[in-house]
Amino acid sequence: MSERANKDLVVRLIEQVWNAGKVELLPRLWAEETRADALALHQVLTDAFPDLRVDIEELVAGQDRVVARLRLHGTHRGEFLGAEPTQRPVTFTAIRIYRIAGGRIVEALADQDAMGLLQQLREAETAPDS
User: Fold this and answer.
1) Residue 77: how many CB atoms within 10 A of its CB?
2) In CATH, what number is assigned to the domain containing residue 72?
3) Which domain holds residue 55?
4) Which domain of life does the UniProt lineage start with (predicted)?
């Protein structure tokens, strides 16, 4: 696939699966050997943040890889990493590196601002209700 087609695949994943909730599209986007992990991640995050929105801040493609710099927004309505729901909005950033083969994602590496997210959850737990 071309670099443009690879970028389009990642945009489709983010816009249609993450932002529009069309999880049924995962088999078209992820290779069979990685699909279960992708679905599990989606489930964990959307259970904790049902209104999760993923914004693409930057997208770079080279050969068989696409790097996405993302900003995620959502309301903490479910347990996440041991934190009980706070009902407060959170925002955190992530960088994902997708490897694509045969028109599907075969690998995804991730680095996210987990510390920043946990700080927001802790602050929300101790903040007085407004």
Assistant:
1) 16
2) 3.10.450.50
3) 3-126
4) Bacteria
89's tokens: 């909005």
Alpha carbon of residue 31 to chain centroid: 17
Rounded to 5 degrees, what angle do the CA atoms 118, 119, 121 make? 65
- 114-126: per-residue pLDDT in tens? 888 888 888 866 6
Supply angle C-alpha 16, 24, 7, rounded to 5. Answer: 40
d(C-alpha 89, C-alpha 108), whole Å: 26
**Distance separating alpha carbons of residues 111 and 117, to the nearest angstrom:** 13
Of residues 101 and 81, more confidence is placed in 101
The number of folded domains in the chain is 1
Cβ atoms < 10 Å from Cβ of 38: 19
Please write the tens of the pLDDT for every residue from 29-79. 999 999 999 999 999 999 999 999 999 999 999 999 999 999 999 999 999
Provide the whole-model pTM: 0.90
Give the sheet arrangement for strand 104-112, strand by strand.
53-62, 65-75, 89-101, 104-112
Run of H or E including 125: helix 114-126
